[in-house]
Design goal:
about 110 residues; mainly alpha
């Protein structure tokens, strides 16, 4: 995972533990990208989208979808773009919060 705190935090660790408790996975290996890592192709895709929205404005989900498709229409990218509307984003924080021990929150190194 990328190094941002929104990507690696106590709720992610709780979700990974939940997957093992529910026996969805026996073992999970969590790795982090090294500092200064080279960004992948997905970053270029987000850059294309961000650049498009610097020049346009949308007010509806349908217009947003059309803008993303338009951003890639004339690009050099050969990616097949499919925009999927996600109706619900679960509130994992509220789900896991009662089970996270606040005394077990400093298990990582604060400084190298």
């Amino acid at each position: 995972i990328d190094g941002g705190s929104e990507n690696a935090n106590q709720y992610l660790l709780a979700a990974l533990e939940y997957l093992t408790i529910k026996r969805v996975c026996r073992t999970i290996l969590l790795t982090r990208l090294p500092v200064g890592h080279t960004h992948e192709d997905i970053d270029a895709c987000f850059g294309t989208i961000a650049s498009w929205f610097d020049r346009s404005f949308t007010q509806t989900p349908e217009a947003y979808k059309m803008a993303i498709l338009a951003a890639f229409d004339g690009s050099k990218s050969k990616l097949k773009i499919d925009v999927v509307d996600v109706f619900v984003v679960p509130d994992y924080q509220s789900f896991f919060e009662p089970f996270i021990d606040p005394l077990f929150s400093r298990t990582h190194k604060m400084e190298w």
